[in-house]
Every structure is written in C-alpha cells, then in structure tokens.
Specification:
Largest sheet: none
Mean pLDDT: 91
Distance between the termini: 42 Å
Radius of gyration: 12 Å
Order of helices and strands: HHHH
Number of strands: 0
Structural class: mainly alpha
Helix content: 55-70%
Oligomer: single chain
Number of domains: 1
Length: 64
C-alpha cells in the first residue's frame, strides 16, 4: 500500500503551473533544502493556502 504524499495540494499546484521546487524556494526566499524539509510533514491548511496563493500569483507574473 502506497502512503499518500504530504502537502498534496501544494504539489498539485506546483505541477499544474509548472513551478519547480527551486522556484518555490525563490518565491519563499529560502533555500531549496528548506522547501524539501518543509514539505516532508503536512503543513497547516492556512500555511498551505498562503503558499498556493504565492505560487499562483508567481505563475500569473511569469505567463503575463
């Protein structure tokens, strides 16, 4: 049985908008290693929503 990935909503938004983890690290102004560690454990819903909003806003800027 396969374990569900943590922070699946964030991972889906990253995939949908073709944003890489290193780009998310740039958005959050942290290292890529910090992002990897952060996503290992399920984040609270409010933090996930903030990160998702940042990803979507960045994707709009890139595609504009």
């Amino acid at each position: 049985m396969q374990k569900a990935k943590t922070n699946e909503a964030i991972r889906e938004v990253l995939k949908t908008h073709n944003v890489k983890l290193w780009q998310l690290a740039d958005i959050l102004n942290v290292s890529e290693m910090t992002v990897n560690r952060m996503l290992r454990h399920e984040l609270p819903a409010d933090k996930q929503n903030v990160i998702i909003s940042l990803i979507e806003n960045r994707a709009k800027d890139i595609n504009s």
